[in-house]
Amino acid sequence: xxxxxxxxxxxxxxxxxxxxxxxxxxxxxxxxxxxxxxxxxxxxxxxxxxxxxxxxxxxxxxxxxxxxxxxxxxxxxxxxxxxxxxxxxxxxxxxxxxxxxxxxxxxxxxxxxxxxxxxxxxxxxxxxxxxxxxxxxxxxxxxxxxxxxxxxxxxxxxxxxxxxxxxxxxxxxxxxxxxxxxxxxxxxxxxxxxxxxxxxxxxxxxxxx
Length: 209
Known about the structure:
There is one protein chain. The chain is mainly beta. The strands form two sheets. Strands 3, 5, 6, 7, 8, 9, 10, 11, 12, 13, 14 and 15 form a twelve-stranded antiparallel beta sheet that branches. The chain contains one helix and 15 strands; from the N terminus they run E-E-E-E-H-E-E-E-E-E-E-E-E-E-E-E. It has one domain. The relative contact order is 0.20.
C-alpha cells in the first residue's frame, strides 16, 4: 500500500509547495481537486517533510535505502517536460505538474541523462502509473480522483538504454536487470510504451544502480 502526499498544486514556486494532507488509501485512490498526489511506496522512509522538495528528496533517498547493495539513484518526478525527448515520443500528452500521459500505443522517451560513476552492471527501474476519473454532477461540485494503476506489462512496457539510445533492454518494474556488457554505459535513456486501451499518466521514474 502506498502513502499519498497531497501537495498544493497551485503553489508558486512549486519547489516550496505545502503538503496539505497525507493518506494511506487501501484502494489506491485519492481525491485530487487542487492537489498533486506524490506517491510514496510502502516501506520507504519519509519523516515529516516540510515541503514538496523535502518530500521528493526523502522519497528517493528512501527508495535507494530500500534496495540493499545499490549505491546510486537517478530519478525524475515528471513535474515538467524537460526530460522528454519530443522528437522520439509520440501520442503523448505533455504538461506540467503531474500531467504527462500516454494515449494507447503512445511512446514516451526521455532525453539522454548522464549517470554518475562507472557504468553499472545491474539496475532496477521503478515507475508509477495512474489515471484520473472525473465526476461532474450538476447537483454537486466537480471531483477528480487519482487512481493507482499497476505498472505491469499489460499497462506500460519499458525499455532502458545505458549508451544514449544505441541499444535498449526490456525491463520490468522493480525487477533487477543484468546489463549485458556491450550495452553498459553512463548515458541513460528510458522508453515507455502504453500497452493498454486507455490513456495512462506517468507519475515518476527512478533508476537504482
